[in-house]
Write a structure and sequence with these properties.
308 residues; alpha/beta; eight-stranded parallel barrel
Length: 308
């Protein structure tokens, strides 16, 4: 099982330095990261929307150690929103944020993260779009859900992410479906212990389907985060059985993965949103992409060998 090993490496400063310096790294990183600056990512947004796709934008970075860094992360999102407003792309691109970037792990982190994310949510609403709070490791979830609930008092369209591999998620899904939230369901991409999460792929897939059924039968807006053809087909069938129209749920996939499938689903009339990450602090995000799929790791290995 390489996945847990890679996820452990994502926390290693020594591995960060090694991989960042490897000759073939940039080629692979460019597959998953749309650019380093707002200006570099704008053409990617425009290309996606021209193809009938929607976008959610993630300014990558998680290792925040000071309030000043958290404020800088907030300002990076505000800069992005300002650029989307100038381009008239507000209704086609939303934001995904990790509260760890906004200071959640610091002293008084809950209050700090809420204070930093609130102006981002308000600015997004002002241009006709919204924000989804990304889930991280299980120790942060109670705080994330509390912030989500607080933000929804004034901005009920604020979304959140739930992870199928966690035992708690079926209960979370029932609560969120009843509340009418926007909820993205993913399998999960953090290294979690067996005491809180399923470890076997088959068990995670079964949980994913159970949770997705709850969301489809509820009052909220499900966002299906998966590249798995079988789960995508199951999602379509569950939506049909629940009587949902094509604009009452959406699919989400990562930039750089299964791009042909993005186009196919959009052509069939589905809402298809591409999770598009950009920025300079790409290491943690990149390592989770490698951990999720062995083919990504093989691609990275070949790139290093051919560039060395």
């Amino acid at each position: 099982m390489l996945g847990p090993v890679i996820l452990a490496a994502s926390r290693s400063d020594q591995m960060r330095r090694f991989i960042s310096a490897a000759p073939g790294t940039k080629q692979v990183v460019d597959r998953f990261i749309a650019g380093e600056t707002v200006e570099q990512v704008v053409p990617v947004i425009e290309d996606a929307t021209d193809k009938g796709l929607e976008v959610t934008l993630d300014v990558v970075g998680e290792d925040i150690t000071t309030p000043e860094q958290a404020a800088a992360a907030r300002d990076a999102y505000l800069e992005l929103i300002g650029r989307l407003k100038e381009l008239g792309l507000g209704t086609r691109a939303e934001m995904s944020v990790k509260l760890s970037m906004f200071g959640l792990a610091l002293e008084n982190g809950h209050e700090l993260a809420l204070a930093n994310v609130r102006p981002v949510v308000e600015a997004a609403a002002a241009i006709g779009t919204t924000v989804t709070l990304d889930a991280e490791d299980h120790t942060t979830l109670d705080s994330m859900f509390a912030i989500h609930e607080e933000l929804r008092k004034d901005h009920p369209q604020t979304g959140c992410v739930i992870q199928a591999y966690l035992f708690r998620t079926e209960d979370d899904a029932r609560r969120l479906a009843a509340a009418g939230s926007r909820v993205r369901i993913v399998k999960g991409a953090y290294k979690e212990p067996a005491s809180v999460a399923y470890q076997a792929k088959a068990e995670i897939d079964k949980a994913y389907v159970r949770i997705l059924r709850t969301l489809m039968e509820g009052e909220g807006y499900p966002m299906i985060g998966s590249h798995d053809p079988r789960l995508i087909a199951i999602a379509q069938e569950l939506a049909r059985k629940a009587g949902r129209k094509l604009d009452e749920y959406e699919f989400q996939m990562l930039y750089g993965i299964r791009s042909d499938e993005h186009i196919r689903l959009a052509a069939e009339g589905h809402r298809m949103r591409v999770y598009t990450a950009y920025g300079t602090d790409w290491y943690g995000y990149f390592m989770r992409r490698l951990a999720e799929k062995p083919a990504n790791l093989l691609f990275f290995g070949r790139s290093i060998l051919t560039k060395g």
